[in-house]
């Protein structure tokens, strides 16, 4: 008896001592998410975070509650398991600040409903896959002081941001970046990625944005745009933030930026301004919308309407897009305002942008033209001085008419003015025998006016799945140009003796107008809970006209003699009626739809010079099918097919010779037929939560029947005349396959990624009535490493080899195969006393071929800086651009039967002193109705 008492006293003392040494505990309640039932006898385990060794475990009581006591200080993993349910995992820490961790209600999900191995909450829940959307948790990535959104994007698996801010995700270009699902400065992604602070971001969502009607009905219509949506933290939606940046460099380089943002509940106001001559044309990478035309390639619901507003001007034009070629002087600015009111029933989103850019430079061109009888080699130089000015205003108003219907009204207007001054010299030979040389001057001035408007009405009926939507849109585009063409060409005999000369001195004008009206009504009706059918009717009217005039001199400086050979006034009107149906099946895991649209298209072509009228009718088909299987929350497979008809443009059918380059003239073909393209796309995406491994695979293939191709005639002097024709017996095709696998090596916290890319195409053209087949196939692989340590250092490096096989059937022995290698990387060091340093390197290499010399360049930039004030808001830095002085923009490509390599001067080595002030002030503001 005494022994038992002594043992009891000893055990009590030991337990008290153990509890005193380990005073930490956890508790919570386990429930079913759907049934809200308490899960009795659920197993709850506490594991060491470092090695996953079991520390303690228990089972839930009758009411689903649990508690585990006498835990030590440290980092742990909570693992909850129950038969038939997905495991639940959460990392947590016990320390002096928190010795009792209450998990609250832990929701368990049936495996039948959620086929995911583990749900992770907290910093390790880096990625979630929700159908077509991949969502990244910003908290899972390292955000350094003053990082912007683009710095965060560089850390995300499968997303790349180049030195100009251009974003590529899953092998495709990202053309739209939204903020909380709303447009922000229109379609220029960098106005978000370089403007919004990374520490304001809660989630980053990557998906293919569907058309408004497809989003509303839930049935895919094949219209998609690779999109990133930036979801802000709730406490960052109220306040002020921005940046003032001033830079002065050697060789008279300069750059200045001002950004201001005011977010207040459901209101956002932003403004920016930039001016620079160091290659920055805006806040970063500027797509064609920055200063270009913005609304090219308008197409009517897979049916009959097609228009390309970039056009084939009588003389050279300038879009205002800077691609690193030449020396730019750019100024740009913009305003953004959006607001929601009346309990979010109404919203307005509007943007205004203005900018100008002047680019000067010199381009050297070497081209090889393959003929049935041999090869022509041309060398040339171009000196250019181009200027463009643009301003654009757009607005979108949305109204919730009632609980079941909505109205969306959008409008935008653009005005652009440009000046072009291009000077060319070329020399062409065959087997080292000189055929011709040319001196040519093109001086042109033009302006463009664009107006777009659209209205979308949507209605949901009481019966679930029954919907009605009606969209009406109008796109108006007018392009006027006037300028001078001066050309002097000398032609030579087979012995290299000058044989003859040709002089062209003309004044040319162009007035092109297009008006595209589209109306589309869509109705969806559920047949069962899983099956629905969608009907649509569309009407399209496209009226376009192009008046091209060329004048010779009657006296020096007086151009009033019409040259009918190069003049024409042509009208091309299209009327399209479209009817379609799509059947959609959807259950928990599977979505499948198929259908087609049929369009009756009427062409009316009028030659105002000759009075000739040509009327034609076509039946166009637009079949489609899509299959998606959702294995789990973290794994999705999608495959889809779309077929659509593309109409010839007015530039391709207008029967007039265009002699902007008298050695390379083009002639329209009024008898062109529409072409038809089949497109197949495949996408597979999976993410393993515990290992942090992501894998995705995408592929696409397209082939075109009745393709519109070039029919080129080359004479003995080396002069080319090209007319567009339909290819009847061959189908050109394109394909690409892109795969990526990446994961984090946890012991060293290093992210590693591996990608493979296969792409290619086969195209056709006629050369002197002989069919030429051009093949190009590229194989590429890449490896990436990155690591980010808060306020210590970060780095990334990615790169890999490639090899391109290219050939032409007319000269199969000619070998233009070439290897290549590309790599880029950067590192940043965060040093004591608020100092920092960093460097970036971009290396590109393309091997020598039979026709062209090797191309390579290394762009090495570096900087040092010191920050001041609270939160490092003020930064003073010294940077060096292109330390090796190798920045030359080179390209190599194949078009038709011609392989071309170009080299253009770019911005080279300079040093710059910079002062940057980031300002922020966030607070809590009550929601505004």
Task: Give structural notes.
By secondary structure, the chain is mainly beta. It is about 5% helix and about 65% strand. The chain has a 26-stranded antiparallel β-barrel. A hairpin with a 4-residue loop joins strand 24 and strand 25 (about 405-430). It is globular and about 100 Å long. It starts with a helix and ends in a 7-residue tail after the last strand.
Based on the model shown, name its key terms.
929 residues, mainly beta, 26-stranded antiparallel barrel, five-stranded mixed β-sheet, 5 helices, globular, disordered N terminus, disordered C terminus
Give the structural class: mainly beta
Oligomer: single chain
Q: How does the major sheet shape up? A: 26 strands, antiparallel, barrel
Helix content: under 10%
Average residue-wise pLDDT:
84
What topology emerges from the helices and strands here?
Blueprint: H1 2-21, E1 24-32, E2 43-48, E3 54-59, E4 65-71, E5 74-81, E6 87-94, E7 100-108, E8 118-121, E9 127-130, E10 133-137, H2 149-153, E11 159-161, E12 167-169, E13 172-173, E14 176-179, H3 190-193, E15 201-210, H4 212-217, E16 224-232, E17 239-249, E18 254-264, E19 267-276, E20 298-299, E21 306-307, E22 327-341, E23 346-371, E24 374-400, E25 405-430, E26 433-460, E27 467-492, E28 498-526, E29 531-555, E30 558-562, E31 568-586, E32 590-607, E33 613-632, E34 635-646, H5 650-653, E35 657-658, E36 664-667, E37 675-688, E38 693-705, E39 708-714, E40 720-726, E41 733-745, E42 750-767, E43 770-789, E44 793-808, E45 818-830, E46 835-846, E47 855-868, E48 874-881, E49 888-895, E50 898-905, E51 910-922
Parallel strand pairs: 1-7, 6-8, 14-16, 36-40, 39-42
Antiparallel strand pairs: 1-4, 2-3, 2-5, 5-6, 9-10, 10-15, 11-12, 12-13, 15-16, 17-18, 17-51, 18-19, 19-22, 20-21, 22-23, 23-24, 23-50, 24-25, 25-26, 26-27, 27-28, 28-29, 29-30, 29-31, 31-32, 32-33, 33-34, 34-37, 35-36, 37-38, 38-41, 39-40, 41-42, 42-43, 43-44, 44-45, 45-46, 46-47, 47-48, 48-51, ...
């Amino acid at each position: 008896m005494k022994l038992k008492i002594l043992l009891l006293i000893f055990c009590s003392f030991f337990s008290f001592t153990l509890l005193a040494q380990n005073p930490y505990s956890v508790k919570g309640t386990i429930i079913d998410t759907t049934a809200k039932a308490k899960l009795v006898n659920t197993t709850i385990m506490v594991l060491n975070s470092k090695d996953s060794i079991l520390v303690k475990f228990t089972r839930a009581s009758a009411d689903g509650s649990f508690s585990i006591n006498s835990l030590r200080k440290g980092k742990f993993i909570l693992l909850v398991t129950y038969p038939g349910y997905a495991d639940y995992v959460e990392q947590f820490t016990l320390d002096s600040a928190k010795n009792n961790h209450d998990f609250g209600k832990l929701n368990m999900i049936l495996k039948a409903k959620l086929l995911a191995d583990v749900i992770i909450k907290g910093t390790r829940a880096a990625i979630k896959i929700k159908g077509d959307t991949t969502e990244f948790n910003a908290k899972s990535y390292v955000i350094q002081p003053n990082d912007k959104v683009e710095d965060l994007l560089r850390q995300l698996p499968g997303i790349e941001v180049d030195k100009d801010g251009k974003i590529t995700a899953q092998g495709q270009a990202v053309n739209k970046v939204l903020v909380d699902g709303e447009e922000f400065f229109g379609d220029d992604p960098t106005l978000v990625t370089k403007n919004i602070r990374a520490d304001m971001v809660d989630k980053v969502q990557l998906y293919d944005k569907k058309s408004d009607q497809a989003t509303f009905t839930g049935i895919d219509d094949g219209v998609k745009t690779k999109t990133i949506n930036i979801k802000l933290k709730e406490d960052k939606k109220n306040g002020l933030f921005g940046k003032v940046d001033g830079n002065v460099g050697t060789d008279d380089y300069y750059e200045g930026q001002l950004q201001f943002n005011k977010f207040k509940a459901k209101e956002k106001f932003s403004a920016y301004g930039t001016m620079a001559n160091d290659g920055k044309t805006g806040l970063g990478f500027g797509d064609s919308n920055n200063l270009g035309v913005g609304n090219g390639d308008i197409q009517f619901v897979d049916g009959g309407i097609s228009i390309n507003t970039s056009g084939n001007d009588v003389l050279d034009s300038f879009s205002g897009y800077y691609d690193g070629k030449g020396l730019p002087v750019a100024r740009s600015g913009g305003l953004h305002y959006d607001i929601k009111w009346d309990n979010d029933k109404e919203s307005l989103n509007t943007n205004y942008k203005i900018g100008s850019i002047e680019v000067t430079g010199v381009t050297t061109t070497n081209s090889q033209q393959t003929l049935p009888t041999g090869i022509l080699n041309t060398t040339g130089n171009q000196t250019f001085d181009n200027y463009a000015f643009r301003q654009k205003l757009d607005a979108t108003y949305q109204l919730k008419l009632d609980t079941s219907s909505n109205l969306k009204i959008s409008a935008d207007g653009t005005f652009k003015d440009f000046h072009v001054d291009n000077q060319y010299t070329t020399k062409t030979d065959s087997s080292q025998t000189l055929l011709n040389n040319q001196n040519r001057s093109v001086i042109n001035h033009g302006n463009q006016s664009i107006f777009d408007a659209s209205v979308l009405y949507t209605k949901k009926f009481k019966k679930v799945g029954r919907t009605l939507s009606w969209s009406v849109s109008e796109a108006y585009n007018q392009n006027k140009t006037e300028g001078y063409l001066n050309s002097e060409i000398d032609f030579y005999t087979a012995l290299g003796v000058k044989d003859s000369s040709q002089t062209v001195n003309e004044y040319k004008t162009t007035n092109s107008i297009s008006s595209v009206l589209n109306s589309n009504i869509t109705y969806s009706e559920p047949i069962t809970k899983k099956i629905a059918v969608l009907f649509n009717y569309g009407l399209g009217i496209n009226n376009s006209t192009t008046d091209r005039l060329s004048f010779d001199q009657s006296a020096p400086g007086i151009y009033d003699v019409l040259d009918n050979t190069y003049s024409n006034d042509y009208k091309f009107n299209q009327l399209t009626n479209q009817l379609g149906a799509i059947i959609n099946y959807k259950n928990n895991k599977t979505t499948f739809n198929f259908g087609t649209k049929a369009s009756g298209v009427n062409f009316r072509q009028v030659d105002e010079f000759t009075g000739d009228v040509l009327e034609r009718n076509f039946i166009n088909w637009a079949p489609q099918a899509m299959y998606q299987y959702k294995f789990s929350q973290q794994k999705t497979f999608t495959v889809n097919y779309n077929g659509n008809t593309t109409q010839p443009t007015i530039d391709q059918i207008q029967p007039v010779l265009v002699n902007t380059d008298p050695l390379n003239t083009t002639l329209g073909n009024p008898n062109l037929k529409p072409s038809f393209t089949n497109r197949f796309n495949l996408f597979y995406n999976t993410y393993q939560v515990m290992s942090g491994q992501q894998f995705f695979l995408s592929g696409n293939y397209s082939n075109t029947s009745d393709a519109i191709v070039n029919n080129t005639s080359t004479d003995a002097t080396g002069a080319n005349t090209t007319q567009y024709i339909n290819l009847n017996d061959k189908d050109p095709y394109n394909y690409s396959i892109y795969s990526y696998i990446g994961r984090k090596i946890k012991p060293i916290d290093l992210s590693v990624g591996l990608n493979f890319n296969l792409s290619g195409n086969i195209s056709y053209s006629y050369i002197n009535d002989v069919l030429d087949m051009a093949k190009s196939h590229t194989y590429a692989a890449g490896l990436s490493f990155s690591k980010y340590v808060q306020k210590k250092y970060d780095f990334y490096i990615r790169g890999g080899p490639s090899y391109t096989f290219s050939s032409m059937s007319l000269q199969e022995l000619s070998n233009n195969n070439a290897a290549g290698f590309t790599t880029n990387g950067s590192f940043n060091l965060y040093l004591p006393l608020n100092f920092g340093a960093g460097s970036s390197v971009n290396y590109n290499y393309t091997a020598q071929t039979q026709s062209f010399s090797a191309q390579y360049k290394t762009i090495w930039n570096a900087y040092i800086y010191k920050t001041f004030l609270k939160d490092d808001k003020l930064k003073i830095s010294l940077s060096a651009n292109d330390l090796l002085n190798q920045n030359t923009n080179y390209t190599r490509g194949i078009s038709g039967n011609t392989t071309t390599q170009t080299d253009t001067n770019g911005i080279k080595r300079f040093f710059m002193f910079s002062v940057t002030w980031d300002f922020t002030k966030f607070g809590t503001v009550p929601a505004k109705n």
